[in-house]
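LAB NOTEBOOK - FOLDING QUEUE
OPERATOR: T.R.
BATCH SIZE: 2
PURPOSE: Compare the predicted structure-token outputs for two unrelated chains run back to back under identical settings.
PRIORITY: normal
REVIEWER: second-year student, initials M.K.

ITEM 1
FIELD SEQUENCE / FIELD STRUCTURE:
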Amino acid sequence: MNDTQPGVLQRLWGGVRRVPPVLLVVIAAALTAVVVRAAVALYRTYDYVQHDNEFCLSCHLMVDPYERFSRSAHRDLGCKACHRPTLLTRSSMALTQILENPDSLETHADVPNAVCVECHVDGDPEVWSNVAASAVHRVHLESDDPALSGVT
């Protein structure tokens, strides 16, 4: 290699130095606008997927479960307040649903008891005493019956 030939970065910098400063400002502003717009779009998409029940309802199979949910005591919560699959699990569920079971809803995003405990026990123990008083919750959460172990 000849030592007198400029390197790639030197040639690039030389070309940039020849561009009028006003044009550089315009290019920088345009690139900044594109990056900001992309960041806003990504955030809105993330927020929609993570926090908007309409995302879950975009699947026609979720209409019936959502109708039942909307009549429950939890109706003011977002779906993912309780259903918290990882990105990998969520992607796997979506692909399985689309490719293998497009017409039926399979087991979907379990809610571990620990998630229930966050609000109903740790969040407000007084409310838990009311919940625990119901037979259904006692059977699921407080039974020593091995057949019920792991029930969520």
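ITEM 2
FIELD SEQUENCE / FIELD STRUCTURE:
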Amino acid sequence: MQSQTALIKNDSLVLADGSSWAIAAGNNYGANLVKILSDTMQLKSGTKPGKHLLAIYYGHPTEKKQHHHTALKFKTSKDNKVTTTTCHLFPTKGSNEIALHLIHLSLIISSQIETRGGLLIHGALAVKDGQGVILAGPGGIGKTTASQRLPQPWQSLSDDCTLVVRDNKGFYHAHPWPSWSTFMFGGEGGRWDVQYSVPLKAIFMLSQSEQIFIDPLGQGEAVCMLTECSEQASWTLTENFDDKQRQVMNLQRFDNICEIIKTVPAYLLHINKTGSFWNDIDRQLLTN
């Protein structure tokens, strides 16, 4: 593996909370992974170092015998006002190797955003008239289908995950996040403009029902439901964490969710497969 100072690829990611990333490869094996990540997130070549550096090293194929699973090793350090996360990935036997590595890399980024008050949510992001809403819920609840049914002037920005960030004034913004599952089983993947963001106006937790209507959620209930959505979006990150690391992350996430719910209203949106649920969202947003 090449020296960790020999970064050979540098693409930049800037988010609405003011955080900036330089995403780089430490060796030739990592460069291809950085290219896929950058193309998917529509990143551009960095012109100057970010406040955070993600350095990706990819094990040589000859190391495959020693790593039969999607091993993820990373550590974070700070020097000269730049926080550096060094990540080591290794080849695996699985056909979904690239997709799993992309998931891990994106979760490393989102976990750092959580230390700044942000949150990765298992939910689709949609926007109308400059107002962003998240359609959240567990897998199979219908997030993708609902987001695909939205008519103009609604626009679906992502159908699986959304990254929420908090700016220095305490306002929340939502960034579309890739559906990495589209790379699995020979899928062609996709492209998401991750650096684009919209003000987050409301979160709607989806529930299947015969009738379409909206129920307000109490803060306690909203926190519980949003915690579940967040855990589903990032559970693979903590597979190699010890108990103390998990505790620190869970406490940080819980605090972030409580703060989000204080500012962003949350509702239970009952939908069916044919009704115009977006009209109910419109009416609810008018009352906010």
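REVIEWER COMMENT (ITEM 2): The first helix runs from residue 28 to 41.
FOLLOW-UP: none requested
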